[in-house]
User: Fold this.
Amino acid sequence: MQSTLTEMLLTKKVLPKSPFGKAIAYTLTRWQKLCVYTTDGILQIDNNLIENAIRPVALGRKNYLFAGSHERAQDAAMLYSLFATCRLHNINPEHWLTYLLEKINSTKKENLHLLLPQNYVANFKQQ
Assistant:
């Protein structure tokens, strides 16, 4: 594909200053970065998972103007992130939050990370 795009520009099949020519030039200058996902099987070709996870944040953006303060808006963003992590791990956010509130006071500071959603299933099974 890279050679085809390069040939299109070099043989003037596409005018370099046209929108399509500019798109081809843009693609060719970023070719290595565009192909990074082919070097590691864990990498994905798109970012659809992330876009779907942050969709509620984008949809509610106007509502966040009324969070009360910058700090409260940051708190809301943190909760969105934690709930998105719950969804990513197929965890009911309400169940996780109930678990968190029940355990947080009796958890040592150095073990607080164990209460995060990604650790919830393993910790919940141990009890």
Summary: The CA atoms of residues 2 and 31 lie 8 Å apart. The two ends are 54 Å apart (CA to CA).
